[in-house]
Model the fold of this input.
Amino acid sequence: MDGFDPAQSFGPEVAQRYDDQLRGDEAETVDLLAGLAGAGPALEFAIGTGRIALPLAERGIGVDGIELSSDMVARLRDKPGGAALHVTMGDMARATAPRKYPLVYLVFNTIYNLLTQDDQVRCFENAAQHLTDDGVFVVEAGVPWAWLRGNQFVDVEYVANGEVVLDVNRYDPVTQILDENHVTLTNAGVRLGPISQRISWPSELDLMARIAGLRLVDRWGGWNREPFTARSERHISVYSR
Ligand SMILES: C[S@@+](CC[C@H](N)C(=O)[O-])C[C@H]1O[C@@H](n2cnc3c(N)ncnc32)[C@H](O)[C@@H]1O
Done:
């Protein structure tokens, strides 16, 4: 997308509204991650506003984070318990957190925010560097076959009396880049929310893990450990040494 800067995708306006409409699967996400973390600590790549990290920390598990956007972290800091978490500001493909972790996790398609294959590989390598010997890296990402519908498509995200949100998409299968614009229409006007993502197949992510010295040990179709099938719209993948 011309002029798109990934670092600006989660600026002050997005951060302000980020938690207004939660996904609704936070409880089962935290349940599964808590089970994998054991006594912890856990490290969240792209911790954002703490949507998952804060309820995980409430379970008594120490949670650290890495995050690019100071606006998202400001929201995290404003929430109860948010000031106590250790967050390293920087790129999850490169930044170093202070400890080794039995659980490193990266949810909500955020691996795709890294726009090159090299950076996605680096992210797996960075996760591996942070794992204890028996630690696991958990990745949640949408599957391309459920998400992409040709090279251009529009999804209706939200319809209400005073507001409509459309997701306008253009996909380039050569670069695997999906340019997406969340277009919010109200009587007051139009608001654009651009983001680009590099969409990878699960098998490509598995090979990235192999390059980083990790192997796939589990893959589910949802946070309740639903089987991963041809109908799954996303995968929750668990990698270990
Ligand atoms: C969809 S949000 C997910 C936030 C949080 N993990 C959650 O589940 O609510 C994506 C987050 O990734 C962050 N992000 C994007 N690219 C990043 C990178 N290279 N390194 C660290 N954080 C990044 C954004 O700033 C944003 O906070």
